[in-house]
Specification:
Layout (H helix, E strand, L loop, with lengths): L22 H18 L5 H15 L1 H6 L4
Amino acid sequence: MTDIKLPRLPDRTPIKLTITVGADLSQALKEYADLYRIQYGVQETVGDLIPFMLEAYLQSDKGFSRTSRKP
């Protein structure tokens, strides 16, 4: 069997999470979504932005990236 360059794709099964946030964070998230709309000209919901915001945060957290392992 020939090895190909593309690695095996990760599990892409979406997992639904339900969270409760405080009023201040809710307002900040709405303001962020507004700034996103202004910058990119596309209206995205807060719920659509949050997974990407969390992913970007985790990727930028040096302490976490040192201890996490990728399969």
